[in-house]
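User: My advisor, Dr. K., asked me to get a structural model of this assembly before our group meeting. I'm new to this, so sorry if the format is off. These are the inputs:
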Amino acid sequence: EVQLVETGGGLVQPGRSLKLSCVASGFTFNNYWMSWTRQAPGKGLEWVASITNSGGSTYYPDSVKGRFTISRDNAQNTLYLQMNSLRSEDTATYYCTRVGGGYDYWGQGVMVTVSS
Amino acid sequence: DIVMTQAPLSVSVTPGESASISCRSSKSLLHSNGITYVYWYLQKPGKSPQLLIYRMSNLASGVPDRFSGSGSETDFTLKISRVEAEDVGIYYCGQLLENPWTFGGGTKLELK
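Assistant: The format is fine. Below is the predicted structure of the whole assembly, which you can bring to the meeting.
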């Protein structure tokens, strides 16, 4: 059974940093691209970052480029999202997603609240 | 950026009847390889989104065949036949053709 379990969320002040982790199981992790997608409270879905299966290439929308860094440890089956210079508009539930035919598996999500 | 526009914002359906949700993209999602990179997701209340349809018309694993996807290069439809109580939630279309990968704003399905 495919499982994606995110950790690392919480309350953080504007301008500070936070690092999310996602442990994957039930599939061959290094065969898949992975992504982070977020959802602000009461809002829709927004893609945040993607990484190739080898980790050699990463992709971001302009809203987080230069502030967020996606990475992975294929030996540990773990995906990361380093978030720097956090803003109030980054407040959201962050989902770890596997990129199969689409985002075919989602984690349970982790809440990040940016507030003073 | 490719803008994905969904309609309606909400739909109310009698159990057992069918429902259709539309999604329009601001640019063709048909790749030169013949694949149309549009996807449909359902977010049930309080849950994470789940994939329903991939590459416009392919049913994701474990999804009932009451769900189907169709469309052209820019206009797409998700049809739900014989709506059941478990189908309640917010439906999103999304595109994976071009960075940034984008989603529609969502359509809320409720039961009458």
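One thing worth pointing out at the meeting: The radius of gyration of chain B is 13 Å.

User: Perfect, thanks a lot.
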